[in-house]
Structures are given as C-alpha cells and as structure tokens.
Write a structure and sequence with these properties.
binds GDP-alpha-D-glucose, 18 strands, about 45% helix, globular, about 20% strand, 10-stranded mixed β-sheet, alpha/beta
C-alpha cells in the first residue's frame, strides 16, 4: 500500500476517532492487509466518510509499528500508535475502566487512577497533534467519543483556524454522577474547545450545559455556552442512526433470505426465534434478559417447541477484569439453563461468543421473530434500528429497554425496564403472543422512523449545524441578558 504524499495528505474533513475503521491482518507471507472492523462507530460513519472522501485518524487496534498514512478503498487512513502500556492505561484503563462505567450510570464501579489520567492526557495530545498536521487550512475536524474528550481544546490551541465538532456516542451523565470524576473540570474544558458538542439525546446536552455552568462558571443560555473570549459553544442532540437502505437491501437479498431459512432449520424450526446481539458488555443487560427468558421456560409459559433464544455476544475488551467476570457469569448461566431445561438437540439458549460478517447479522435479523434489546443504559443502540431496517415485511417484534437512546424514537417497541425481571417477562410474552395486525402497525411506524432518519441524515445534520456555527475568529456574540 503506497504511503500518500504530504501534499495530498491535507484534508478538508477529518474524523478523529479512537479506532481506525479497519483491522490490521498479517498474512502467512508477512504481508499486511486491512479488513473492515465491526462496531457502532464504524458502522455509523463509514458511508459518510466515503461520500466525503475525508481522512480518518485513529489507532489500528494493536501495538505494532504503525505505517505511514495510506489510502484504503477510497478512505485516507492516518494510524496513531499506542504502546502496550498506553493500551492498558489510556484505553483499557481511563477510557473503559473509568469513563465507560461512570457515563453509564455506574452500572459497574468506575476506577480512578492518576496514572490512567496521565496516559489519557498524553494520548489525547497525540491525536490532536496528528489532526493538526493533517487538516487543511480552515478544515472541519470531527472528533468522536469519550476516549478523546480533551482533543477539541488541544487542537484549537494548535490550529485556531479549524472548525471543530465533537460527538459523544455514549450517554453523558447527570451532574450528580459526573461530579465524582477527579478530573471533571479538565474534561469539560477539553470539550469546550469544540464549536459544536453533539450528544445522542437532549437530556445529555442539558447535563453538559448545566455542568459547565456549575463547574467551570461560564454563562449559558439554553443550548449555548458563552466563553470569556467571545466564542460560543453549542451543545445539541443528534440521535445517531444506521445505513437503513443498505441494511434493507442486504436483508432482501436472496442469499440472506436463504441463510435465514437455514438458521431456522438448524434451530429445529421452533414457532418463534428470540434474538439478542450485543458486544459482550455489562451495560447491555444480557444476563438479565437470559434470566427472564429462562424463567419463562422453567415456568412452562414458553416451551422448547415454542421458542429458542439465540444470543450472539461479540467479544469485547477482553483484558478488562469486569468483562472477563461478565463472560464467566454468562457462560455459567447459559450452561445452567441448558443443563436444567434443554433436551437433546433442543437447548433453550443458543449462545455464540463470536463476531460475524454483516450478511450473517442480516440473516439473523431476518430469522428472528422477537428481537430483545435490554441495556441498563445505552447511548443509542444500533442493533435495535438494524433489526427494524431488516423487517421489510413489516413483521417481527422489538422488545426494547427504555434506557436505550433508541427508545426515544422507537416508541412502538415493547418497552421494558431491564431492572424489572417480571416486567421484562411480561413484555416478552406480549411480544410472543401479539397478533399479526398489531405487529405490523408497530413495525410500520418504526420502519418509517428509521427510513427517515438514517446515518447520512445524522451526519449531514451535525455537519450542517457545525458549518453554521459562528466562525472562531468572530468575537462579537454576547450572552442574552437574562442568563
Ligand atoms: C456505541 C454506543 C451507540 C456487533 N456485533 C457484530 C457487529 N456488530 C455491530 C452491530 C451494530 C454495532 O456493532 C453495535 O452498535 P450498538 O449501538 O449496538 O453498540 P456499541 O458498540 O456499544 O456502540 C451505542 C453506538 O456507539 C453508535 O453511536 O448506539 O449506544 O454504546 O452496528 O451490527 N457487526 C458485525 N459482526 C458482529 O459480530 N458485522
């Protein structure tokens, strides 16, 4: 893969994200190739980046030497290196051991370690330096997610000419929780380097503005923060979505249809197939949902002729303790449920701890009568939207946690509180027993929502809003009197 020259390396739209949208694959001959990698952010941004021929700055996902920037399938990729220790302290530590649980309502206990914070600062600076080198004059830079919250201000210091946007894919917690963070002020100030800070939901944007007022002392009014130097930072909601058309097209393809049938055959053609697809993460509520389902079987409200639960858990953050513990807990639960309730050739839960190509995901969505998405807290949850996009016959039921961002839009789902096992059981039974007309009415409405609000609309509404923000050199705006 030829490296690209410095001149061609300047980009008008630069995405800065923790991960590059590809994984490095080293063949038997030692040759390096790159393969698309799964994950919410990649699924969401790839179509937009290709359409805009921008540059993407990110970590390749391992600690090997990083190559020079290169072009892969029309996408300019700029790899940023992380050492073994930085992966442990910046990525597994501060990002996934501190911020992830803190921002997800303390579903797990966050750990606070000063050396993790130091690594977070150092790595954020490296991403900011790369963006500063790569962006053309007056370019737009779009920084992604919780791993890089200091980049906006670091980048603004290096390149005041840039228009900078930031988008948070996960929830932004209320002041009462966020205030536990020893470095709360630095994080808020880091984000304020952006012209536009985007969130999944309005409530998250409001949490941010309130914290800025309380903890940093800036004047605010509704969705605007007024900085002493005259700059105005906007904080708004932009609910993310999926490539709806792409998913539907895939679901309609003959091969996916055939594969969906094969999956049902392999499962022994039960009356209904329940499905869960998640990264193996403690925020996703996998354990609670499988427990609810197994109780329905144990109580005889569902039988093994009626149903099977297919749970796909994509391996994730496997070196972080809490994730190892969760994996063991789910292994044990599935083993116990199948041991107690299953019969030869008829397990209650068909559990797959692996990741699959997109085609297989679409076939699973096609094969499932009831999709069960029960996170304790989730920024959006794209799986719920993907399921809806694949149900082109307007059938199938979605059981959805009210604590997923997606519940804001997919109001016709069977909404559940994942902390309430009995409530979940009741909704799963409702979904199982629903009549065709009711399912069609619900699915049609949800399909309209995801068709109208797809990922390209999400990206363009963010970028349009960003390009309409006040130019950074103009210092004329003053806060309204009453705030
Ligand atoms: C974060 C936020 C927010 C999963 N397994 C495989 C696979 N996937 C794809 C799914 C979906 C994506 O990964 C997962 O997205 P989610 O939204 O469900 O969850 P997170 O990974 O936690 O994403 C979340 C999202 O960012 C976007 O802003 O919605 O709230 O937590 O697209 O299809 N894809 C393939 N094989 C797999 O095995 N090909």
């Amino acid at each position: 893969m030829p490296p690209i020259s410095r001149k061609r390396a300047t980009a008008d739209l630069v995405v800065v994200a923790n991960r590059l949208p590809v994984d490095r694959v080293v063949g038997d001959d030692g040759e390096t190739t790159w393969r698309r990698s799964p994950g919410g952010l990649v699924s969401a941004l790839e179509p937009v980046m290709r359409a805009n021929s921008g540059a993407w700055i990110g970590w390749p996902g391992d600690t090997g030497d990083v190559p020079e920037p290169f072009v892969d399938e029309g996408l300019t990729l700029v790899p940023v290196a992380l050492s073994e220790r930085e992966v442990a302290e910046f990525y597994e530590g501060f990002s996934n051991g501190t911020l992830w649980p803190l921002y997800h309502d303390l579903v797990a206990k966050p750990a606070f370690h000063r050396e993790w914070w130091d690594a977070y600062v150092k790595v954020n600076q490296r991403f900011a330096d790369a963006a500063a080198r790569f962006a053309a004059k007056d370019a737009t830079v779009w920084v992604q997610d919780y791993q890089l919250q200091l980049v906006p201000t670091m980048l603004r210091e290096l390149r005041p000419d840039l228009r900078i946007g930031f988008y948070l894919h996960i929830p932004f917690p209320p002041a009462e929780l966020f205030s536990q963070l020893p470095w709360r002020r630095q994080i808020l100030e880091g984000l304020l380097g952006a012209d536009l800070v985007g969130f999944q939901l309005t409530g998250a944007a409001q949490n941010f503005v309130r914290l800025v007022r309380q903890r940093v002392g800036h004047k605010t009014h509704r969705d605007s923060v007024y900085l002493p130097d005259g700059r105005v930072v906007l904080a708004k909601a932009f609910p993310i979505s999926i490539d709806t058309e792409g998913f539907e097209e895939l679901a309609r393809s003959e091969s996916v249809g055939a594969r969906a049938k094969e999956i049902r055959d392999d499962l022994g053609n039960p009356r209904q197939v329940f499905l869960g697809i998640d990264r193996l993460d403690y925020t996703k509520g996998i354990y609670a949902r499988l427990r609810a389902f197994s109780e329905l079987i144990a109580e005889g409200r569902l039988t093994l002729e009626d149903v099977v639960f297919v749970q796909v858990a994509t391996p994730s953050r496997e070196r972080v303790d809490q994730y190892r513990i969760l994996r063991d807990e789910i292994d044990r639960l599935v083993g116990r449920v199948n041991g107690d309730l299953g019969r030869i050739g008829r397990p209650a839960i068909s559990y797959l701890h692996s990741s699959f190509p997109r085609e297989e995901m679409a076939a699973l969505y096609r094969a499932a009568d009831v999709m069960v998405v029960t996170p304790f807290r989730d920024g959006m949850n794209l799986v719920a939207k993907e399921y809806v996009a694949c149900r082109y016959d307007d059938d199938g039921a979605l059981v959805l946690s009210e604590f997923a961002g997606a519940a804001n839009e997919l109001r016709q789902a069977y909404l559940v509180n994942p902390y309430d096992i009995d409530g979940m059981k009741a909704q799963m039974m409702e979904a199982f027993a629903a009549n065709g007309r009711d399912l069609t009415r619900r699915m049609r409405a949800m399909r309209r929502t995801v068709a109208e609000n797809d990922v390209s609309r999400w990206a363009s509404s963010f970028l349009d809003q960003l390009s309409g923000t006040q130019p950074t050199h103009s210092k004329s705006t003053r806060p309204p009197k009453e705030s």
